Amino acid sequence: MGVDTQAGVFPPRPLRGVRAVYARQSSCPADFAEVTVDFEPWEEGITFEAAATPATRGYVEGPELAAYRDAFGEGIREELTGLGAGITVAVAVVLREVRVHEVDSHPGAFREVGRVAVRRALALAYGPPPRPKRRRR
After folding, report:
1. Which residues belong to any copy of the Translation elongation factor EFG/EF2 domain (predicted)?
2. Which structural domain range is residue 25 located in?
């Protein structure tokens, strides 16, 4: 992941309003998921919850939205579990807003946007990952 393993605990401070988008248009149907989340310092481990009334943009049925939330939580957990051994994860992730597309949104897109949200939060907390150096000829 390229995160500074000397960083200690993730998140080091509240990271609010982290917006993540996963949109891929390679064919029809495509993939689309957009979320806004907060990463709050918490007890050791990963706690995931939706705000009491998360804003939902786009039409989606209740059971379908629940499947999207579950997939999003899976993506969050997968990405955080893959962090280096030097980082202790102690986070509450609060889903604040969801945006869906009636054709292109599906659980797989929400799993991926969960991973993207963690990467965005890591960049906000520790700075962007180091860029690969060019080799000289």
Report:
1. 8-126
2. 8-125
